[in-house]
Design a protein that fits this description.
CATH topology of the largest domain: Arc Repressor Mutant, subunit A
Low-confidence stretches: none
Distance between the termini: 82 Å
Structural class: mainly alpha
Largest sheet: none
Mean pLDDT: 90
CATH superfamily of the largest domain: Winged helix-like DNA-binding domain superfamily/Winged helix DNA-binding domain
Number of strands: 0
Protein name: Transposase
Pfam families: HTH_Tnp_1
InterPro entries: Homeodomain-like_sf, RD_transcriptional_regulator, Transposase_8
Keywords: Coiled coil
GO molecular function: DNA binding; transposase activity
CATH architecture of the largest domain: Orthogonal Bundle
Helix content: over 70%
Number of domains: 2
Shape: rod-shaped
């Protein structure tokens, strides 16, 4: 059974960001936020591990799909340019 946190997700994200961007000690930030310093340390460690692990598999799948689609768009743009030039060439030939 998972415990429901008494802190909203956005609060935790903001607290982690504050720890990462501040030069103040973690204990001081925890005290100012009214959070146990070990709780805050745990949040920071979990966030660091998640960042080190990289994006989740579905994020990688989306990134791979975006890369594939960008390549396809570039190829289609080249084909369109070739067809545009060919159409201009044949239009000139028809005018002769």
């Amino acid at each position: 059974m998972s415990r429901r946190s008494k802190y909203p997700e956005q609060f935790r994200r903001d607290a982690i960001e504050l720890v990462n961007s501040s030069d103040r000690p973690l204990r001081q930030i925890a005290r100012e936020l009214g959070v146990n310093h070990e709780t805050l340390r745990s949040w920071v460690n979990v966030a660091k591990q998640a960042a080190d692990a990289g994006p989740p598999a579905e994020d990688r799948a989306v990134a791979d799909e975006v890369t594939r689609l960008r390549r396809q768009v570039a190829e289609l743009q080249k084909e369109k340019e070739i067809l545009r030039k060919a159409a201009a060439y044949f239009a000139r030939e028809m005018d002769r």
